[in-house]
Design goal:
This protein has about 100 residues and is mainly α. It contains 4 helices and no strands. The longest helix has 11 residues.
Length: about 100
């Protein structure tokens, strides 16, 4: 499908007509976009979710698989304390720009 094009300039919706190209595509033409935007469209299926880490809607063949590809350990059931002691401060790009200007 054209929405999955790796090159952004070739993706559906990136042309002159923008999102109208997507809205007119045969897969999406039946959607009432005004109702959707107004949140008046009800989903055909709404899964029950018991919490932030709920996996009840995934097949057990996926949830029982060991995490071979992950360097992280499997989270505890409560999910609390996963990032205990972890700190991160995002770099402030404003200061970086000022420093670069002062160097010139």
């Amino acid at each position: 499908m054209q929405l999955l094009q790796k090159e952004p300039s070739k993706r559906l919706g990136n042309g002159v007509s923008g999102s109208d190209d997507i809205k007119q595509h045969k897969w999406f033409k039946a959607i009432n976009w005004k109702k959707l935007e107004a949140r008046e469209v009800q989903p055909k299926f709404r899964p029950e979710v018991t919490g932030q880490d709920c996996i009840a809607n995934f097949d057990e063949r996926w949830t029982k698989m060991p995490a071979h590809d992950s360097p992280a350990s499997t989270p505890k059931e409560d999910g609390m304390g996963l990032f205990e002691g972890y700190t991160y401060v995002a770099p402030n790009t404003w200061f970086t720009l000022i420093e670069k200007e002062n160097i010139k």
